[in-house]
Specification:
This protein is α+β, with helices and mostly antiparallel strands. The longest helix is centred in the N-terminal third of the chain and has 18 residues. It is built from one helix and four strands.
Length: 111
Amino acid sequence: MKRLLAATLSLTLLASGSAFAGPDHHPDRDNRDRHGQQDRNHANPRGHDRHEPPRRGGHLQRDHRGDYVRDYKRHGLRAPGRGQQWRHVDGRYVLIAAATGLIADVVLNGR
């Protein structure tokens, strides 16, 4: 009798847990955030990647870090700090943290 009561109670508790679960949330379903704004990190409806211009405090994704700039002095750029590097992205020189892609500075042209 105790086993039957324990099994029934266990099944009841398991079944009631799913009743409190919220609806499935699929953030990528229509590329909109919780405020209805179009998600900027996903492709636009035409299928082309859409990137915001780099700005200080933002991040550069690994697949959109542009070309590494070795000769920063020639472009009128200051020496990068430890762990930083200059990148040429979308016509701008961007100083990023090499490990994370965090943008420390953006220069439209080096001079």
